[in-house]
Amino acid sequence: MRAFLHQVVLFGESYAIEAARLFNAAARKRSLRVDAMIAATATVEGAILATNNRKDFGVFTACGLQLF
């Protein structure tokens, strides 16, 4: 696991591909489009996502997202 402290992560091709995979796995629910991008960043980086929004992000755990 990698820790991010005050770092900007550029949303590149690998993140976009993972976001598309997660978005499709979430039945392309439009309200989860940006959440899929956030989840993809955490997944690609091997990070655990800390969130209070477990309802929306929980759909991505079946695809490998780890929540705190």
Automatic annotation (TrEMBL):
SUPFAM superfamilies: PIN domain-like (SSF88723). InterPro entries: PIN-like_dom_sf (IPR029060), PIN_dom (IPR002716). Residues 6-55 form the PIN domain. Gene3D superfamilies: 5'-nuclease. Pfam families: PIN. This is Putative nucleic acid-binding protein. The lineage of its organism: Bacteria, Pseudomonadati, Verrucomicrobiota, Verrucomicrobiia, Verrucomicrobiales.
